């Protein structure tokens, strides 16, 4: 695992050093730089040594130095690739490095090399003879890559903060990104929170022509649930077990110790159980809990403990308090790069794990593959009376639809009802669960001019309309795999693990396994009333009975309680009307409309208040204090607390 950076144009060699320094936490074990003065190019990296500890130094070149690469991630089928490439005549200088596989695979196939890769990756290759850069990001967006063009430079880096070291990059807020954040609690790509900085989207590659200074983007893969197969339920269970077991076996490729995050949920438990079944020695598991007054509803340590006892793991438990969060919120926000209002416990799990291991397995991705969030249910419930429409986009005849509505002659009210049902079915994302709906944002939330900024629901609906699938369930899953999975869950997993120099791995997102899961018909893959029925049946032998029956809980802190108690002074200060008026981003009446009712217990507006608070902390760190280096202060240290 690494932090990579690169820059073209004047003074590139001098500028890459600070870019790498901003990402030292991503690679404390080694660093390197390559400069081509004639091309006006510099590449840099910071390395966390996981595979081929002695031979994996980067930037790495081929035999004649015509191709160079900087690479962040792991290629889990690299042993097979090395054999195949050696048979084709390629000579390897390292004993095990997956980085060297990328070089030789590029020599053979250029962009088509991406079809052969199984793993998580963000890399950039410099092709001296073709005078170009070629960069790519893995299929699900597990590993990040930001880029910018400004001041005659093309720049890229693993983290946004590295680009902020460049003088040509401003800290002007991208209002569209902020607008989306307020609804989603994360900033979706391909933009970023700052104007002029973009993210390379998951499953995309770019080419940059050094002479023409031209940039081209191409999507090379997309989830496709249309290629369904037919098997019995028992056969599907066997396929799921075998596929995930093979993925786990691939994703523990490492020359350093591996541990497992164990939340007490089905996904992380199945990873531990399958790893134990493979005979992996000395499995270490790490769990987090809460033991404050009224916090039992957030705690699943007793379930995690049952799993650890079942598989005789070396188990470790950690408790978190609101004072811990006050101490750590500032560094959390700095490591996240962009505003983020999601769950935070993984910070502590990864910090805890990093004391013993350098690689950690997590269950991220299981819910997206098996419909564990059930977002599609609200749409299907409102459409049960509608005729079957496999495309999920209202191709049925209006008369057939009207015939299924209650009532007699179609009068005005019935026509209106029909119109509403049509609209809901055609545009499911009009009722998508948003923390702040578009109308509220325009009416009373944002202080800036929002004219010309598209609605978040419209943007999501556009992604749904472009998706492939056999109905509502597939369409919603495809949207989640392009948005919430890479931009919230995987972003958090990457930043919080790398903050502690730990490599987090997500075997559910092994693309071979994921593609097979998506070939399961959606009405078999996920079911109403028991969303992950099929997956639970496939791995039931790995799970304690109590865990099988336990309701799903999000992996979050007790934010409802903490916002009203220990975090209340922070909320009251950062969201005070006079402070918002000076800032000019959110309207001052946000406090009376959302914050005060929640703090006083008159309404549960946890999602809204947490979203606003996390933006304000981010703004304090990145805009008001222009942080590039990790801040040395905490919320405890600020004078007004």
List the main descriptive attributes of the protein structure presented here:
641 residues, globular, single chain, 6-stranded antiparallel β-sheet, Glutamine Phosphoribosylpyrophosphate, subunit 1, domain 1, Rossmann fold, 4 domains, alpha+beta
Record the SSE blueprint:
Blueprint: E1 2-8, H1 12-21, E2 30-36, E3 41-47, E4 60-61, E5 67-75, H2 78-87, H3 98-109, E6 119-127, E7 132-137, E8 146-150, E9 153-157, H4 160-163, H5 175-184, E10 197-199, E11 204-209, E12 214-219, H6 233-251, E13 258-261, H7 266-277, E14 284-289, H8 301-311, E15 314-319, H9 322-336, H10 346-353, E16 359-361, H11 366-370, H12 377-382, H13 398-403, H14 412-426, H15 438-445, H16 456-466, H17 472-482, H18 484-498, E17 503-505, H19 511-518, H20 522-525, H21 533-538, H22 545-549, H23 559-564, H24 568-574, H25 577-583, H26 590-599, H27 606-624
Parallel strand pairs: 13-14, 13-16, 14-15, 16-17
Antiparallel strand pairs: 1-3, 1-9, 2-3, 4-5, 5-6, 6-7, 7-11, 8-9, 8-10, 11-12
Q: How would you describe this structure to a colleague?
A:
- The protein is of the alpha+beta class and 641 residues long.
- The protein has four domains: 2-219, Aminohydrolase, N-terminal nucleophile (Ntn) domain (Glutamine Phosphoribosylpyrophosphate, subunit 1, domain 1, 4-Layer Sandwich), CATH 3.60.20.10; 233-371 and 482-549, Rossmann fold, CATH 3.40.50; 378-480, no CATH class; 559-637, no CATH class.
- The protein has 27 helices and 17 strands.
- It has a six-stranded antiparallel sheet.
- The radius of gyration is 25 Å and the shape is globular.
- The relative contact order is 0.12.
- Residues 385-412 and 414-425 have low confidence and may be disordered.
């Amino acid at each position: 695992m690494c932090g990579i950076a690169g820059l073209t144009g004047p003074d590139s060699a001098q500028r890459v050093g600070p870019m790498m320094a901003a990402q030292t936490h991503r690679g404390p074990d080694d660093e390197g730089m390559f400069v081509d003065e004639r091309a006006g190019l510099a590449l840099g990296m910071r390395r966390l040594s996981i595979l081929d500890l002695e031979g994996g130094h980067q930037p790495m070149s081929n035999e004649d130095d015509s191709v160079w690469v900087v690479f962040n991630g792991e290629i889990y089928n690299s042993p097979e690739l090395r054999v195949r490439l050696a048979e084709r005549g390629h000579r390897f200088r390292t004993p095990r490095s997956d980085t060297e596989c990328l070089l030789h695979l590029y020599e053979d196939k250029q962009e088509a090399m991406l079809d052969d890769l199984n793993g998580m990756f963000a890399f950039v290759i410099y092709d001296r003879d073709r005078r170009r850069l070629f960069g790519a990001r893995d299929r699900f967006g597990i590993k990040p890559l930001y880029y910018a063009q400004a001041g005659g430079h093309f720049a890229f880096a693993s983290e946004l903060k590295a680009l902020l070291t460049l003088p040509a990059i401003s800290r002007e807020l991208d209002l569209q990104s902020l607008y989306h954040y307020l609804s989603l609690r994360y900033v979706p790509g391909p933009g970023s929170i700052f104007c002029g900085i973009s993210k390379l989207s998951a499953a995309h590659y770019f080419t940059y022509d050094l002479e023409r200074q031209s940039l081209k983007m191409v999507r090379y893969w997309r989830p496709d649930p249309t290629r369904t197969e037919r098997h019995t339920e028992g056969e599907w269970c066997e396929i799921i077990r075998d596929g995930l077991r093979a993925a786990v076996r691939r994703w523990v490729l490492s020359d350093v110790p591996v541990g497992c995050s164990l939340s007490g949920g089905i996904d992380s438990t199945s990873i531990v159980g399958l790893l134990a079944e493979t005979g992996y020695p000395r499995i270490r598991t790490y769990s987090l809990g809460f033991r404050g007054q009224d916090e039992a509803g957030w705690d699943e340590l007793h379930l995690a403990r049952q799993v650890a006892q079942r598989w005789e793991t070396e188990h470790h438990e950690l408790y978190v308090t609101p004072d811990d969060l006050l101490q750590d919120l500032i560094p959390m926000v700095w490591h996240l790069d962009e505003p983020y209002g999601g769950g935070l416990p993984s910070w502590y799990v990864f910090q805890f794990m990093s004391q013993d291991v350098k690689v950690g397995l997590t269950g991220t991705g299981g819910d997206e593959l098996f419909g564990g969030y059930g977002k599609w249910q609200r749409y299907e419930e409102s459409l049960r009376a509608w005729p079957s429409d496999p495309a999920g986009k209202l191709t049925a005849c209006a008369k057939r639809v009207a015939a299924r509505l209650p009532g007699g002659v179609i009068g005005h009210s019935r026509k209106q009802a029909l119109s509403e049902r049509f609209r809901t079915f055609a545009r499911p994302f009009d009722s998508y669960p948003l923390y702040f709906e578009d109308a509220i944002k325009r009416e009373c939330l944002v202080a800036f001019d929002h004219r010309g900024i598209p609605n978040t629901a419209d943007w999501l609906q556009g992604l749904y309309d472009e998706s492939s699938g056999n109905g509502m369930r597939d369409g919603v899953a495809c949207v989640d795999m392009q948005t919430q999975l890479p931009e919230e869950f995987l972003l958090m997993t990457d930043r919080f693990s790398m903050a502690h120099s730990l490599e987090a791995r997500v075997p559910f997102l092994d693309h071979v396994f994921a593609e097979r899961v998506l070939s399961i018909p959606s009405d078999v893959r996920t079911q109403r009333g028991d969303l992950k029925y099929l997956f639970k049946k496939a791995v039931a032998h790995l799970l304690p009975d109590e865990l099988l029956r336990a309701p799903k809980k999000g992996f979050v802190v007790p934010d409802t309680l903490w916002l009203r108690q220990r975090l209340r002074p922070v909320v009251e200060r950062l969201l005070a009307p006079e402070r918002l008026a000076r800032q000019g981003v959110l309207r001052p009446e946000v406090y009376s409309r959302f914050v005060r009712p929640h703090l006083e217990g008159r309404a549960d507006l946890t999602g809204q208040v947490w979203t606003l608070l996390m933006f304000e902390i981010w703004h304090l760190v990145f805009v008001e204090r222009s942080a590039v280096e990790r801040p040395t202060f905490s919320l405890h240290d600020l004078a007004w607390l």
